Amino acid sequence: MEKRQASSFYQHFDESERPTVDYFVGLFNQFLFKNESILTDFLNPREQYIFQEIVGGYAQLYSFGGYPNAEKKRMLLCDWDKGYEQADFKISLLEVEYPKKWSKLTHSQILGVLTHLGIELDTFGDIINDENENWQFLVKGELVDYFIEQIDRVGRTKIKLKELPLSKVLVQEDDSTEMSAVSISLRLDAIVSSITNLSRSQVKKIIEDGEVKLNWHIIAQSNIIVSVQDMLSIRHYGRYEILNLTTTKKGKKRLEIKVWQAKKR
């Protein structure tokens, strides 16, 4: 099989995603010529999709994020005749121990601590909790000791991290819903306006303020075209995955959208 060229995939993705395409094409070529399985870091759903498109049907690609329906996952690229076990993904589960009677933690607080460790976002997976204020997050197995040693506070709350087997992961329910919206065009600002009922001027402001992400990237331009499988994140509103697009008789765009409403923190 011949070496793949990243440029042959550029037309299928946004220009801002070219570095991601370059990286995944490099991984595939490494797998091709070294004939060794490759385990990725934690990838967000958009990165998972891009990697799947690049690999196509030329090799086996497994994914696992530590529990069913995980959002961020590690992916294992290997030959078709190779199976896998959970242990192959080298994912560890850390639980946050803290005085629940006196303190309350939030997703944004824990994410803030993790991102200020000086490590990359792809070294850890989902941050999850339950109705009893228990918090856990998934990390690369080789970095467990580093996380435990480096993190002893979340905000003003003193905490301790404890490693647990993956069988102890908190049960997560899919709290998404589906909605329909009609937009005058597929421009980002028009789509956001149709979803939030904000005026175009209000949408322009929240985009300029960095409150809108497209496929996990902060977007500064309003005229980017949105397409199926894109993921929008709008601060204070939630996350929106574009499931399907059709055109109405009047030429407008009807969107079927999966929605995860923002939770009050």
Show the helix and strand layout.
Blueprint lengths: L17 H17 L3 E6 L1 H11 L4 E5 L8 E6 L12 E7 L9 H9 L8 E6 L5 E6 L3 H7 L2 E2 L2 E2 L1 E5 L12 E7 L4 H9 L3 H9 L3 E3 L2 E2 L12 E4 L3 E10 L5 E9 L4
Antiparallel strand pairs: 1-3, 2-3, 4-6, 4-9, 5-6, 7-8, 10-15, 11-12, 11-13, 13-14, 14-15
Helix pairs in contact: 1-2, 5-6
What this model shows, in words?
The chain is an alpha+beta fold and 265 residues long. Helix content is 23%, strand content 30%. It is built from 6 helices and 15 strands. It has helices at 18-34, 45-55, 107-115, 144-150, 188-196, 200-208; strands spanning 38-43, 60-64, 73-78, 91-97, 124-129, 135-140, 153-154, 157-158, 160-164, 177-183, 212-214, 217-218, 231-234, 238-247, 253-261. The strands form 4 sheets. The chain has a 6-stranded antiparallel beta sheet with strand order 10-15-14-13-11-12, covered by helices on one side. Strands 5-6-4-9 form a 4-stranded antiparallel beta sheet, with helices on one face. A 3-stranded antiparallel beta sheet has the order 1-3-2, with helices on one face. The longest helix is centred in the N-terminal third of the chain and has 17 residues, at 18-34. The radius of gyration is 20 Å and the shape is globular. The termini are far apart. The model has no long low-confidence stretch (mean pLDDT 91).
- Residue stretches low in confidence (pLDDT < 50, at least 5 long) are none
Could you give the order of the helices and strands? Answer: HEHEEEHEEHEEEEHHEEEEE
Mean pLDDT: 91
- Outline the biggest β-sheet: 6 strands, antiparallel
Shape: globular
Strand-pairing-aware structural class: alpha+beta
Per DSSP, the total helix count is 6
Measured between the Cα atoms of the first and last residue, the distance is 51 Å
Provide the helix percentage: 10-25%
